[in-house]
């Protein structure tokens, strides 16, 4: 009976991981296809389509735009999230529970609704579709995540350290920059890398709020409109590789917090 349970467990695990990773394996495999059609049988390996992607100015520009939007919007989101978390954790505010709920509310709202709302707001305010508008949208969706991560890690032991620094004569800005930020660095970096991962892959808001300068997911969608293209496999593999790097950095940051 134990043998049957163990076999069933392994089969279940293989089915789950196969369901998750098989599409990625197929994507990466056919990104190395030598022919012009990403269909079986596999002919390769070849870096032909990676070279085509890197020599395509539209795709490389979209890649740079995605990195720029991801980095800057994540910096803004983690900064605002940290300051919000610090304010709620260190000061007694009227209706703080309601305000915390409002900050995290975008986590429960569809990106499509948020994107449409921002589109209407920017049209009313006269803000044109651009990478700046998309970056603001990414801050809106990532700020609640950064706030939740950082706020959950603010404990009483940090209050005692900050109080000791004030007793020694440190002004509030020095306490914040030299005590609170270093102590909270793992949570801050975790929020930053997770925000970058979401911003890097985000499509709906970028599609709604950009026009001429687009991000990489939007450019991939433009390619897919004309049918299967081997370059889309190569781009998808590059996007997946960057996402994996960001997730690994996020995990390493979390591991640094665990006591030895």
From TrEMBL:
Q: Which domain of life is it from?
A: Bacteria
Q: Which residues form the ABC transmembrane type-1 domain?
A: 63-256
Topology relative to the membrane: Multi-pass membrane protein
**Keyword presence, Nuclease:** no
Which compartments does it reside in?
A: Cell membrane
Q: What is the similarity comment for this entry? A: Belongs to the binding-protein-dependent transport system permease family. CysTW subfamily.
Q: What is this protein called?
A: Putative permease of ABC transporter
- Record organism: Mesorhizobium metallidurans STM 2683
């Amino acid at each position: 009976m134990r043998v049957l349970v163990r076999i069933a467990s392994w089969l279940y695990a293989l089915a789950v991981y196969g369901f998750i990773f098989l599409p990625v394996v197929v994507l990466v495999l056919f990104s190395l296809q030598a022919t012009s059609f990403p269909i079986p049988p596999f002919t390769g390996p070849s870096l032909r389509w990676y070279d085509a992607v890197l020599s395509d100015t539209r795709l490389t520009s979209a890649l740079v735009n995605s990195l720029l939007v991801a980095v800057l919007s994540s910096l803004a989101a983690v900064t605002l999230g940290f300051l919000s978390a610090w304010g709620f954790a260190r000061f007694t505010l009227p209706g703080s529970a309601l305000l915390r709920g409002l900050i995290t509310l975008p986590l429960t709202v569809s990106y499509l609704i948020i994107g449409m709302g921002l589109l209407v707001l920017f049209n009313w305010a006269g803000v044109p579709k651009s990478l700046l508008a998309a970056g603001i949208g990414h801050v809106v969706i990532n700020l609640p995540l950064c706030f939740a991560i950082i706020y959950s890690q603010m404990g009483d032991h940090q209050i005692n350290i900050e109080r000791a620094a004030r007793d020694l004569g440190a002004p509030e800005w020095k306490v914040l920059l030299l005590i609170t930020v270093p102590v909270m660095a793992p949570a801050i970096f975790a929020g930053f890398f997770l925000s970058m991962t979401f911003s890097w892959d985000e499509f709906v808001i970028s599609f709604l709020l950009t026009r001429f300068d687009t991000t990489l997911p939007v450019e991939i969608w433009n390619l897919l409109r004309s049918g299967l293209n081997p370059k889309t496999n190569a781009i998808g593999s590059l996007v997946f590789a960057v996402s994996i790097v960001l997730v690994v950095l996020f995990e390493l940051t979390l591991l640094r917090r665990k006591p030895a």
